[in-house]
Amino acid sequence: MAGGRPKTTVTFLLSKDPVTERAGDVELGQLLMGLAADEFEVSGLCLSAQTGPATLGGGIALTRLPKPAIRPATLLADSIRKRRSLVHVRFDTDDLVAAIDACDADVFVAEHSYMAESFLRSTKVGRARLVVNTNISEALVWRASRGALGRIEAPRLRRDEIRVARAADAVGTYDAAEAEFYRANGVSAARWLDVSLPPVRQVDVAGTPRRLVFMGLRDWPPNQEAFLYALRLWPRIAAGIPDAELAVIGKKKPGAPDPVYPDGVRDLGFVDDLPAFLATCRALVAPIKTGGGVRVKLLDAIRMGLPVVGTTAAIGDLGAVYGLATHDDDDSFVAQCRRYLLDQPAAVADGDRLYDVNRTRWEQRTPHRAVVALLRAEPAA
Prior knowledge:
By secondary structure, this protein is α/β, with parallel strands linked by helices. The chain contains 16 helices and 13 strands.
């Protein structure tokens, strides 16, 4: 109770199980739930390979519901019958509708636009507030990475995303340009969600070897694309630099053949102690070509004071927040990587600046205020 009044209750609708799955959207989803828990009473409903109750950090209650298997024929038939995209059909389940109906929350937060579909079929419409955190436009990802099917589905996905946004009381995005897109399409409550990760122990960049690191789960098509791009650029980055090394972290793309690794590249997959390993790296490289949405790996690097070399697609609105330059052509990207490998004091200075900006933002509770404003559906600035 606060001032004799009960706290507003907020239930997050998650497409992935934060107990068993690791991905950028999962990590940021948990961050949002934790920030919300400072002000509200928070719980979660998630789709999972497991079922039943679980508890997240901070004592947040989680209910796990069956995640539908991918059945192409059924999905196609339902997509045609309901006139919706494949993604929005797949994640709309009767079990989730029933769980929403049984939940006595004041606010439901759909993590990804497609997770709002079950809410829109529930009895809570008009009785509880719907907030959508888009994360990243599936239309963008499908168009860029799914070939002919992606080009067919992208307009259908975009139509669904706009429809869901118009039905919501508030919409948060991780891209200012995405928020502007929604506002131009009649969603006045769309806002850029200005969040960051809490500071952790700072990396001693001055004590690092000439090692750059690429991080990302390569079963996500934009990460696989960026990984192959980094391998192509590496011989130019490392040319004439003794002991230059590129460490690659993250699960490989299933079924993809191993590429030819240039000298100095180590594909480590998962590492047991990620913070300890990152503390041995000079900078993070993020040569993303298909971007938008979640930028959790960059936020991870920033919060520990690790310099970043990224494209516009990788850095997005974080550039303005943290004073990060972007490097979109090969020559610029290569030059900045070589600068950090050869000029350690420059890397130290940039890492210190990133760490200080992030720490100040957290101490001033900038991310906390952003999440509270979204969940209260306050007018977008």
